[in-house]
Amino acid sequence: MEDIVSIEFEYKGKTYFALARIKDKNDHKEYHITVMNGALEQKLYGNHVFVDQESWILLSPVPENRTGQLRMAVGMALCKHFNKPYHFAETAVFK
Length: 95
What we know:
It is built from 2 helices and 6 strands; from the N terminus they run βββαββαβ. It is globular, with a radius of gyration of 13 Å. The protein is an alpha+beta fold and 95 residues long. β5 (56-58), α2 (66-82) and β6 (86-87) form a beta-alpha-beta unit. The longest helix is centred in the C-terminal third of the chain and has 17 residues, at 66-82. A 6-stranded mixed beta sheet has the order 1-2-3-4-5-6. The protein has one domain.
């Protein structure tokens, strides 16, 4: 059975709510977010999964636009709700 929690987040000066469905994977957890606002849910589409690796919530990838701002707002609220630190994935550049 999957757990579902409600989180509150601020975006552009307003308060919104989202549901986080928690999926236990073999070596990590995933938080699948559903924003309780149609327009914001569409904006977050495709960027709605956050991964919990070794008790850190991975916020990346973060798109470079308002979708990125929304993903950051939701991700930070998720960290606050579960009292967990966050980090960004390091990307290697190969030559």
